[in-house]
Amino acid sequence: PERVQAQIKHELSLINDLSYEMYFLTVHDLVRFARERGILCQGRGSAANSAVCYALGITEVDPAKSTLLFERFISRARKEPPDIDVDFCMERRGEVIEYVRQKYGERAVSQIVTFGTLGAKSVIRDVGRVLGWSYGDGDRVAKMIPNELNIDLQGAKEKNPELAAAIENEAPVRQLWDYATVLEGLSRNTGIHAAGVVIGDRPLDEFIPLCRGKENEVVTQYAMGPLTDLGMLKMDFLGLRTLTIMQEAVRLIHVANPDFNIDTIPTDNKAAFDIYNRGETLG
Predict the structure, then answer these.
(1) Residue 283's pLDDT is what?
(2) What is the pLDDT of residue 282?
(3) Are 10 and 70 in contact (CB under 8 A)?
(4) In this structure, is the dihedral angle defined by the CA atoms of residues 48, 54, 56 and 57, taken in order, positive or negative?
(5) N or C terminus of the chain: which is more exposed, having fewer CB within 10 Å?
């Protein structure tokens, strides 16, 4: 239809003006590889608003049929580059990362470091251990901190009178508290981001510092935020257990029906939606 053709021309013009062509083709190549290998994968998020993503096979939701707005994905007003998240079967995500390494070079591909910080409970336990406290004594103080997301030591003291009294009346607790409040929030350890991968057109150590992970994998020494600020090409390869379950379901169905295609399942099947409405699902 003319409306769809006009939309694709509009998107291609914007993608070209903003020099995002290589990014789209890179994502398309990853999805193509996965699907040719029978690895269930799916682009998600606002990328599903793009007719170009749909035409490239990155997403499988027709944005024209679903009346999705492309500008939620890319617009001239947004300074950030597009970020296409792609979910892969959890058990086979590693094959895609290995393909990227083979294609772009071992030294041009890296996973991304994350930094664990000393949170309210962990800093209490760690400082207690350094001070020679038994695990039970440190754990007693740590358990006085309310189980609230992102709570800090000051907030815990204000919310729990028992904790405030222990700090006031017990000299060892007060000493521990003084040390812990200084150290709270500092980086404690490193890990590897669950999904993020950086790809370069040359060895990454020409741009950023790298290190080795516990299993000898190449890992950036910069976290996600600084990498984005530097303009590095960051892609998310998320391993999704749901897709692993779906992949196994498709395999089982093919035993009885080799012609089954998950992409052609109707989206208006009342009997299927009734299962959801009755709460007969998990997750």
Answers:
(1) 66
(2) 80
(3) yes
(4) positive
(5) C
